[in-house]
Amino acid sequence: MSSTDLAVQEQQAAHREQRVANDFSIQIATVNGSGSQTANMVLLRSILLMGVPVSGKNMFPSNIAGLPTWYTIRASKKHYIARKKEVDFLVAMNPETAKEDVLTLEPGAAVVYDAPLKLDALRSDLVFYPVPFDKLVGPVCPDAKLRRLVRNMIYDGVLAKLLGIDLSLMEKALGKQLGKKAKAVTLNAGALKAGWDYAEANLAKQDPFVIETMNETAGKILIEGNAAAAIGCMMAGVTVVAWYPITPSSSLCESLITYMKKYRVDKATGKATFAIVQAEDEIASLGMVIGASWAGARSMTATAGPGISLMGEFSGLAYYAETPAVIFDVQRVGPSTGLPTRTAQGDLLQAAFLSHGDTKHIMIIPASVEECYTMAQEAFDLAERFQTPVFVMMDLDLGMNNWMSDAFTYPDAPINRGKVLTDEVLKKIGEWGRYKDVDGDGIPYRTIPGDGMPAYFARGSGHNAKGQYSERPDDYVENMDRLARKFETARKYVPKPVVQRNPRAKIGFLGYGTSHFAIEESRDQLRDETKVETSYFRLRAYPFNEELAVFVDAHERVYVIEQNRDAQLLQLMKLELSPELQTKLRSVLHYNGLPIDARSITDDVLAQEGFEVAKKTTARVSAGSAGGE
Amino acid sequence: MASPVKVNRIGLEPQIYKGGKTTLCAGCGHNAISERIIDAFYEMGVDPRRVIKLSGIGCSSKSPAYFLGGSHGFNAVHGRMPSVGTGAMLANQKLIAIGVSGDGDTGAIGIGQFVHLMRRNLPIIYIIEDNGCYGLTKGQFSPTADLGSKLKTGVVNDLPPIDTCALAVELGATFVARSFSGDKKQLLSLLKAALAHRGTVMLDVISPCVTFNDHEGSTKSYAYVKDHDDPVEEVSFVPFFEDIAVDYEPGTTQEVTMHDGSKLYLKKLEENYDPTDKIGALKRLHETARRGEFATGIIYIEPDRDDFLTQLNVVDEPLATLPLDRVRPGPEALEEIMEGLR
Questions:
Q1: B2 part of a folded domain
Q2: Phi, psi at B175, each rounded to 5°
Q3: What are phi and psi of B202, to 5 degrees?
């Protein structure tokens, strides 16, 4: 309703005049390839070290150097770590975008900018802090070639002073970031100090934003989802990895290489307990994974949408010949090449049915870096238990951004290698057939080349329960029905949904993956701002389990929140839900390449619920429009 | 008294090395190749339980079902057998891999994977059953069809062929040979030598398609190949477990010691052909092709180069069966990683 909406506006405006501690976002606009990532990470970690919950998101171009990049840091005492739509504090370092960056700010925002850009002439409703970066960098960095890189560290010093971040903690964060590179640490520490000193001597604090010490981050780590998944793979005992470089998945395999070299080389012999191969393409990557799994190794690959498309044929082979495979899909924006450095959840339908014929795949969907770690391990168990490909559906936001998390816990269970034929089993079951459903769960026993058990001929062509070539109608149907039965069994073993039932709620939220954090925040916004109560079902796998229909049934309307255009999960749900339940489904879709934010969800839901929502300045959807190929 | 059952050096009967009944055309060259594979594996005393048979799609790729019935097999997708074989060998380097492909499976849809397999020197015997046409889809030209070769329908091939041997030599395969399905003796020697080699063996076997490509005007017919077979040497193979002294006149025969200690004796049939000389090998292939002939025998051999698994520095045991305590680092490793991220 309009009156409600007006109240929200007033409330927000009023906030601007007070002190705003640990609840704002900082956006740093730079040029990629200018070393700003180090400065941004130092700023991010120093806020973490202040004990304040924090998150960082990089919006970067598909380019090596010279194009606009935005890095957003959000401090949130309430632990909200989704992207915040509004920018409260801008650091404008890029002359190309500075004007637009300033013009799109909300009134009351603060701007640190490179003095020659003279941005203060653009608006009168913002707080401006000019800093002469070029003048400051000279004395602290005598080597002219390095100045471009060191220059960015100066804004960290300025921000430390303006926001009240302890400079010693920032220096600690710098040490952590640069590690043993003593020269670089000294150089950058000088730049930090120069920024701090300049701000102290020349800039009077006029904005409300401050970082205050809290005690909410003890023991927390900062990690990208790709690195978290890599650690999970290592702990799962992966032995064969084949991959092809593609944004945003490359750093998963690259992190894995780093960790494996450190922790998976035999001390006695100096030899590796793994093989990692950069293949000629994604097709070969999955082919190698399938060959390795067939021969008994725990094997994986990581890719993004274009790679998934290429893997179609082999995915069908693995489904039909029943070989395990773990495939990480770090989703980016499609179709086709799409926006390689932007995030989406657009591969769901493609992965679920990847390949021709009647093919269905297990998908598991982590929301957090912690789940990247745990689900990486679950993926291998599921792939071997069900002798089938398992797709781990991550996204760029999760894979490539830094997330605050509790430290990961050491796995307390042994790995599950599924039904592998042994002498004991053979005695028990009598006659073995590779594709015989002995236990009624659709899962056959397999043998592994070299293990001395009976051999079989794996094939993508029609086969009977013994694995022999067959074109007989009854053999075909029996086998396909068993595969369907196996998929049914999987419902009970894939990660269960996380459900928060609110007895007062008429509407339910249903989401998955990284939308989780924005959904949680949006639910709070709805409750606090409009007294709309919601339940929440966080889906974590396909095939679904029976709780899905129960949840939909229990609510009048269910908003399925997704980061794609075509409501892909909703479409998938429609295949299984009854027509009455289908009528309850609504869509909230966010697909501009930026991570979904709470305000977008809240506004969309309120509009669909009949509230009047004021049209606000849209976020920087233009970010990176100049991005190259 | 029954005569004693014939067994090989590991005590297995010939029967064990046979496979299912062939479903290929009567007289198909591929069947002759399957028979030589059976003979070679039997005579070399290879344990079939250690063998993996791999193939792509096509007539050739059906043939692994017709030999070594006690071995595991994987009939993969069209043109992509190399990657499946690579994965399997990474998982368990104690396996012995034999891949059977065709000229379409390798030269057309599979050329990308073929190229990269050759670069890696993976331990695998990669056989192309080469008839210059697609049999299973009724005789279309494949990329190894010679310029000017004629289809039954009268269509003439006007694109230059891919010479898989030249390509393999160029790309780094360490054992490159060509043979003819009708030359039992040479093919058997080559297959036995292949089993003694640690690295990629690329063996192109001209294998006429009796149904679609055995007519006049075809350059892959029995008659044509018989007339244009140009052996580069006479191949004798002496496995490490046989102690045979070979007499030869000095300067007429080149001796090559294989990875497992076996010996290869290559009797020169002409002036100075040296199969360890890469540039000479390529030159010879081009010259023979220009004459419309097929150079057969060992075209190129490099017995000592590190194979792919050695390059990757993997442990000696199969990765597939390493116990959990060797593939899952301890809690202290995880704690160290976590500390670095705080």
A1: no
A2: -150, 105
A3: -110, 110
A vs B: CB pairs below 8 A: 218
The C-alpha atoms of residue A329 and residue B275 are separated, in whole angstroms, by: 46
Say whether residue A271 is in contact with chain B using an 8 A CB cutoff.
yes
B328 domain residue, yes or no: no
Number of domains in chain B: 1
Over chain B, what is the mean pLDDT? 94
pLDDT tens digits along B210-227: 999 999 999 999 999 999
Residue A7 pLDDT > 90, yes or no? no
CB pair distance less than 8 Å for B333 and A263: yes
Return residues 282-301 of A near B (CB < 8 Å).
283-299
CA atoms within 13 A on the CB side of A141: 28
Nearest to B314 among A275, A280, A449 (CB): A275
Q: Give the pLDDT confidence of A423-435 residue by residue, as tens digits.
A: 999 999 999 999 9
pLDDT digits (tens, 9 = 90+) for A27-72: 999 988 888 899 999 999 999 999 999 999 999 888 888 889 999 9
Q: What is the pTM of this model?
A: 0.95
Closest chain B residue to A282 measured between Cα atoms?
A: B83
Q: Which residues of A touch B337 (CB under 8 A)?
A: 231, 259
Is residue B151 a part of any domain in this protein? Answer: yes
Enclosing H/E stretch for B61: helix B59-62
C-alpha–C-alpha distance, residues B262 and B283, integer Å:
28
Which pLDDT belongs to residue A159?
A: 98
Q: Could you tell me the two tokens for B338?
A: 């976590």
Is A259 within 8 Å of B337 when comparing Cβ atoms? yes
The full set of domains in chain A, from first to last, is: 19-210 (3.40.920.10), 223-405 (3.40.50.970), 423-484 (no CATH), 498-608 (3.40.50.920)
